[in-house]
Amino acid sequence: MTALGSALALACASLAVQADPPGPPRPGGPGWHERGMPLPPGRRYDGAHGHPHDYLAPGTAVHVLPRGSRGVLWGGVDYRYAGAVWYGPGPRGYVVVRPPYGLVVPDLPTFATVVTIAGIAYLYANGVYYRDHIGGGYEVVPPPVDTSARSGKPDRSYVYPRNGQSAQQQASDEYECHRWAVAQTGLDPTAAATGGGIATPTQRADYPRARTACLEGRGYTVR
Question: Is 128 helix (H, G, I), strand (E, B) or coil?
């Protein structure tokens, strides 16, 4: 073997020794929980509604906010949010909090999950439910009541965007179709779910048909 060949062989052997095998996923990053690894302290996993993400746990102290965090002034409190995590003033900076109901945020992360309960569309992320706000943006709302769990009858529908509509567009369309169906049938499932009205059998049958007709007209498949 020539001197050059020997040098190349030694270099390749050195690279093979120095090469690191693929390491575990970043703590709290994609695949961490799925591989059965414990989350780092101060983080929680949220798998509700098929929403596989993990976040800083409420009560966690934060000295420096993430880049790109935005502020929302509500009730005299300067809230901040970034990546579906909410922050409030703390003794030494900020602390992770739950946003108050009624607070309106201009946008949501793209990974927010569309959830339809009792015929109403919500956006869900990090344990918080949002609805389209009439003045723009998204309003923090109380967790919806699923009446199907109490009645034993399925009241859940699945809406598929045939034309590739975004999650935000789907939530907006579902809300508009809900309002149209309410106007056509006189039944608001949201009010009925909270005890605000009594629906007749005809209304209960007509509302989902009206909502489905509206959604299919906007390019969705409803099952």
Answer: strand
Within 13 A of 176's CA, how many CA atoms are on the CB side?
11
C-beta of residue 211 within 8 angstroms of C-beta of residue 179? no
166-170, 188-192, 204-208: the lowest-pLDDT one: 188-192
Record the pTM: 0.56
Q: What gap in Å lies between CA 97 and CA 158, rounded to an integer? A: 31
The terminus-to-terminus CA distance of the chain in angstroms comes to: 71
- Domain regions of the chain by residue span: 43-222
Q: Which long-range contacts (CB under 8 A, 24 or more apart) does 77-85 make?
A: 79/103, 81/105, 83/55, 83/109, 84/53, 84/55, 84/108, 84/109, 84/111, 84/112, 84/125, 84/126, 84/128, 85/55, 85/56, 85/126
Q: For 205-214, what is each residue's pLDDT tens digit? A: 888 888 889 9
- Residue 3 to residues 14, 15, 60, 141, 180, Cα–Cα distance (Å): 17, 19, 61, 74, 83
Q: Say whether 85 sits in a helix, a strand or coil.
A: strand
DSSP state, residue 142: P
